Design the sequence.
């Protein structure tokens, strides 16, 4: 007996083939991951850092950042208008202290000790230095400083200058209240960051990221500042 299929009756074998093909097509297309805006922007910045560090600023495109972030180019433009804006956001996010630039790092109670003041200052200097992204971004900043000086200058004026001014105001007030000893270092407090800055420069130049060395430097930096800032006994 010959069995035939009515033209309107689906062939089971044909259905199985179609189902298999549809499954393969579905597997090829990754499902879009819905993330909060802050997490999505962080993914974009992480991808941008990878691209900038590997290919340089000039050779990096919005398309390459999108590909590395595994999102569409439209997804990038939903958060950033240009490659320049991404670069600025990277500088501001990675190389900015844990606390906002204009906030005070001073202990909150009325009369902190010199030890508490120094420890609070060093926290903003060192707490992010063990993050590999920080040194990668510093390398990028140095390598691109000639190619895109206006972007580096923008970061310097909006982060570094404001941070130096804020720190100086805090220290001037501490000297006025007798919490710190007046000296050349309190008059020019940007010098207080010199040891940590030296470590960053050497780490970038020689790829020396020994955490034990960093911890030892932080301890020595603390002792140095205590020696220079502790009020003299009356």
Sequence:
């Amino acid at each position: 007996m010959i069995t035939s299929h009515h033209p309107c009756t689906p062939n089971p074998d044909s259905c199985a083939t179609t189902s298999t093909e549809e499954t393969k097509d579905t597997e090829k297309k990754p499902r879009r991951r819905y993330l909060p805006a802050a997490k999505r922007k962080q993914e974009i910045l992480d991808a941008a850092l990878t691209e900038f560090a590997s290919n340089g600023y000039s050779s990096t495109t919005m398309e390459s950042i999108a590909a590395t972030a595994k999102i569409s180019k439209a997804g990038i433009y939903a958060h950033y208008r240009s490659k320049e804006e991404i670069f600025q956001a990277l500088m501001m996010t990675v190389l900015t202290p844990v606390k906002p630039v204009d906030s005070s790092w001073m202990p909150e109670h009325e009369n902190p000790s010199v030890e508490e003041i120094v420890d609070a200052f060093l926290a903003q200097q060192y707490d992010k230095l063990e993050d590999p992204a920080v040194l990668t971004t510093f390398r990028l900043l140095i390598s691109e400083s000639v190619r895109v000086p206006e972007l580096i200058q923008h970061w310097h004026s909006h982060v570094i200058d404001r941070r130096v001014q804020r720190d100086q105001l805090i220290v001037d007030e501490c000297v006025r209240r007798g919490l710190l000893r007046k000296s050349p270092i309190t008059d020019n407090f940007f010098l207080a960051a010199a040891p940590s800055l030296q470590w960053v420069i050497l780490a970038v130049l020689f790829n020396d990221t020994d955490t034990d060395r960093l911890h030892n430097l932080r301890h020595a930096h603390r002792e140095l500042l205590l020696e220079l800032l502790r009020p003299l006994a009356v």
The two ends are 116 Å apart (CA to CA).
